[in-house]
Amino acid sequence: MEGWHIQEFIDYVRLEKRYSENTCVSYQTDLKEFTIFLTKDFELKNPSEVKSPQIRTWVFTLSKKSISSASIHRKISSVKSYYKFLLKNNIVTKSPLTGIVLPKKAKMLPVFIDESKMKSMRSKPVAKEKSSFNSLLEKLVIELLYQTGMRRAELVGLQQKNIDLHIMQMKVLGKRNKERVIPFGIDLKNILQNYITLKKENNFPEEFLLCRENGKLIYDKWVYNLVHKELEGVTTLTKKSPHILRHSFATHLLNSGAEINAVKELLGHAGLAATQVYTHNTIEKLKKTYKKAHPRA
Description:
The protein has two domains: 6-88, DNA polymerase, domain 1, CATH 1.10.150; 115-292, Intergrase catalytic core (hpI Integrase, Chain A, Orthogonal Bundle). It is 57% helix and 4% strand. It has twelve helices and three strands, in the order αααααααβββααααα. It has helices spanning 6-16, 21-42, 52-64, 69-88, 115-122, 132-148, 152-156, 186-201, 220-232, 242-255, 260-267, 272-293, and strands spanning 163-164, 169-173, 179-183. The chain is globular.
């Protein structure tokens, strides 16, 4: 895709803006799809040739493919960031995205696991065929995701030096390289302590906290497969990703009366709006309680 300056943009967001690798991959995928469409359907050769009607056609084509409105919004957001970069570097003189009307986003409430089901999953006995190290690692991964609400990428990149067992808190490197501190309880402290001790006995590297029984680090797909397998035993939800445990963490905190700003800080959200989606689940629970318990409901 010479002439489109996509690699220059990806290098910029990766090296200068220091966006996460997942974000960079998303940008690259969206822009590749965008430029292939324009090249194939309109025979355009560079970003300065793109006009608003062509982008509207792309949006219409995406919606016809039954791509969700949320995904279309994300793709357009990628293109907007791309054109901001092009404008900044005088590659184009104006953005063709002015006046583009996007399909209305459907309100999607976060999916979470019921507290009783989470308790059942976490108290499940360890499979006999597993090594003590592997079983402890798997238990620790589930507990870290659920008890801290951290993202999968944050878990994989968690450094051992940032775990303070004495004061029971950890430093997590989140989106945009923003660091936050998350406290944890005695239960998680004990699991961490046992795991770190076992890791030391095996002479495994200590830079990153989580590694497998062969000494190699855990990775995104490994975490996904583990969580998916564990959740299969307790829920019929179609989606069984690590993010479900983050949703559950936030929802359970709010259901128990946690202050929303505190939950926002624990999750590492930039604004309160991202955290407020969890209050809808809390309100729905209150409505059910009211209808069940109030004599005039």
